[in-house]
Amino acid sequence: MKKLLVLAETLLLIAAAGCGAPETSATEATPESFTTAAAGLTVQNCTPLATQSVLASGNDGNVPDNTRDDRLDTRWSNFGKGSWIDYDLGSTKSISGAAIAWHAGNTRANQFTLMVSPDGMNYTQVYSGTSSGKTEAAETYTFAARTARRLRIYVNGNTLNEWASIAEARPCAGPTGASVVWRGDFETGNTSQWDRSQMVSADRLQLVTSPLRQGRYALKATVRQGDDPINSSGNRNELVKMTREPVGSEYYYRFNTMFASDFPSVRTWQVFAQWHHEGSSGSPPVEFYVYGEEMRLNIGGDPGVIVWKAPLVRGQWQDFILHVKWSSDATVGFVELYRNGQLVLPKRNIATQFPGMLNYLKVGLYRSDTVTQTGVVYHDGWTMARELADVL
């Protein structure tokens, strides 16, 4: 990034209470006596990522593209809490922060949140905070690396007024090799990380703050006899993520599951996670389920092959890492499973897709309609990545 010379003149600043127009003004004017050097953006603890385009919720004539022109004397401005500006990286990249130079950043502190998205539709909050209010230079705000295409900055006013006003902003690159491609960990406070739900009512798939395995939220999935939101076999309430892993692709999936203390003990199937094929009927090629007093991993549909089983544990979080290579060729595809930090299923070659069909993920509880008792299972921490290190 180019770095322009700072003007040699001494900068003259008047001691004004605020560097913007009153909240009732249509534009945020800069007082005549306020000047700033046209210096390029210098960032600390950030490797800036190039952006392909930028858009915003609105502007007062100070347009969003001003935040990419390497000048601290231009800006984007918009009035109103919740104003946002959104940067497109052109393709998915690892992002671990944002460097932001706030307009009049030495006279007011801005309240803001950062969100990232892989597609411009599903956004995950990754940071919430307040600028220092002590500098016009760029401040870097970091978070755990995420793979995303877009970075959005929401501004919720500042200590003087409700203007959102940013001179320059840059997404910061994440560590080389970061490979998380999706998180469904519910830390958005809703189910926006997932594509859709299949439930009879909102109380069947609830976000809860206890019990938790990590973060602030977990999913409580409840199924009662007769719950059939899609007019199909069995009873269910599930979230859906269209992962559609390509043939030959290889991923690690981490998830945390806890069965309620009164989870039913019945000698029939109760699925709590499944990678379903694109076909409309039949058992999925990869499924975790409970049968009686056992947890099982079945591969290949019905009857398939039970490649792992263990005693059912209630009231305690179970941490799973599933390593899969997706293929309908049994000599190419494989599964490997870790439970609670221990390798419980060494790599086993097996077909993980049906010929000509991709899979998608469903999480919650899906069971035989013969079960009469209410079933409750909790889910947390869903993460999909290309490297084991990124889900550990």
Could you give a short description of this structure?
The chain has 392 residues and is mainly beta. The chain has no helices and 22 strands.
Characterization of this structure:
By secondary structure, the chain is mainly β. The chain folds into two domains: about 55-175, Galactose-binding domain-like (Jelly Rolls); about 180-390, Sandwich (Jelly Rolls), CATH 2.60.120.200. The chain is built from no helices and 22 strands. The protein has strands at about 55, 75-80, 85-100, 110-115, 125-130, 140-160, 165-175, 180-185, 195-200, 205-210, 220-225, 235-240, 250-260, 270-275, 285-290, 295-300, 305-310, 320-325, 335-340, 340-350, 360-365, 375-385. The strands form three sheets. Strands 8, 10, 11, 13, 18, 19, 20 and 22 form an eight-stranded antiparallel β-sheet that branches. Strands 1, 2, 3, 4, 5, 6 and 7 form a seven-stranded antiparallel β-sheet that branches. A hairpin with an 8-residue loop joins strand 14 (about 270-275) and strand 15. Residues about 1-25 and about 30-40 have low confidence and may be disordered.
Mean pLDDT figure? 89
Instruction: Provide the domain count.
Output: 2
Rg (CA only): 25 Å
Stated plainly, the CATH topology of the largest domain is called: Jelly Rolls
Morphology call: elongated
Number of helices: 0
Q: Which CATH class of the largest domain applies here?
A: Mainly Beta
Helical content stands at under 10%
What is the name of the CATH architecture of the largest domain? Sandwich
